[in-house]
Amino acid sequence: MNPPYPYPNQELAVVSEQDNIIGSAVPDVVYARGLIHRFASIFILDSQNRLLLQKRASSKRRHAGLFSESVSAQVEYNESYLQAASRRIVEELGLENYSDHLTEMCKIYVDVKEEYDDNYNSYTYLNNDGYGRNSVSNRWKKNAFVTLYKLILNDDALLHISINPSEISNIYLLNLDRVMEFFSASPSLFVPGFGFTLKAFLDHMNSAAR
Predict the structure, then answer these.
(1) For site-directed labelling of 180, which of 1, 129, 144, 203 has its Cα 20 to 30 A away?
(2) Is the sign of the CA dihedral 81, 17, 32, 126 positive or negative?
(3) Under DSSP, is residue 51 helix (H, G, I), strand (E, B) or coil?
């Protein structure tokens, strides 16, 4: 069996199909039951339009060592999407006072079902990204409204990043074309659901460029 979620007293916002708050629950309950919740994904770009990818710490309970968005945030019961995004930027990258610099891009709905076999340490992702793994047990479901934010950092701000080693093992700045190539070639190296947020991010960027 998996150990309890590392923040056992954390209460996440549980929402309706219209994204209205209807209650709260701890993360283990949210993911085991597939309750609809809220999530924030932050895509950080530098002055050269390179995207900051993070590699999750090897000690993370779920999806250890996988790549993900620059910053990800579960939205707690008593906070907004923006507050969650701002909190996790501090907790993961040590960047304070960036709330006013976050630009909301869009909101999407993500439905990812994953099963995990503790005995064989293997996953299967059942989602419409179209990527599968080995046959396993122990379900984990992410049904969430995800608000995407963009944050552009100058070179000085990048120098002040201080990654939290309990959350992140490393960060990388990659051209967007390289990110797409990387994900297309090796989707199993990314957290489940990354395909959804990456597509929404790129669609928004392309739309803004037209």
Answers:
(1) 144
(2) negative
(3) strand
What confidence score (pLDDT) does residue 115 get? 52
Each residue's pLDDT tens digit, 45-103: 999 999 999 999 999 888 899 999 999 999 999 999 999 999 999 999 999 988 899 99
CA atoms within 13 A on the CB side of 115: 12
Alpha helix ranges (H) inside the chain: 27-33, 81-93, 155-159, 176-185, 194-209
Supply φ then ψ for residue 168, to 5 degrees: -130, 135
DSSP state of 113: E
Q: List the structure tokens of 63.
A: 């999806």
**Contact predicate 140/34, CB 8 Å:** no
The pLDDT > 90 percentage for the chain reads 68
pLDDT at residue 31, as a whole number: 86
Sign (positive or negative) of CA dihedral 75, 54, 154, 148: negative
pTM: 0.84
Residue 163 CA from chain centroid, whole number: 16
Instruction: Say how far apart CA 86 and CA 95 lie, in whole Å.
Output: 9
Contact at 8 Å (CB) between 75 and 81?
Answer: yes
Neighbours of 131 (CB within 10 A): 15
Q: How far is it between the farthest Cα atoms of the chain?
A: 50
* pLDDT tens digits, 8-33: 568 999 999 999 999 999 998 998 88
Residue 121 gets which letter from DSSP?
T
What's the rounded Cα separation, in Å, for the pair 144 and 19?
9
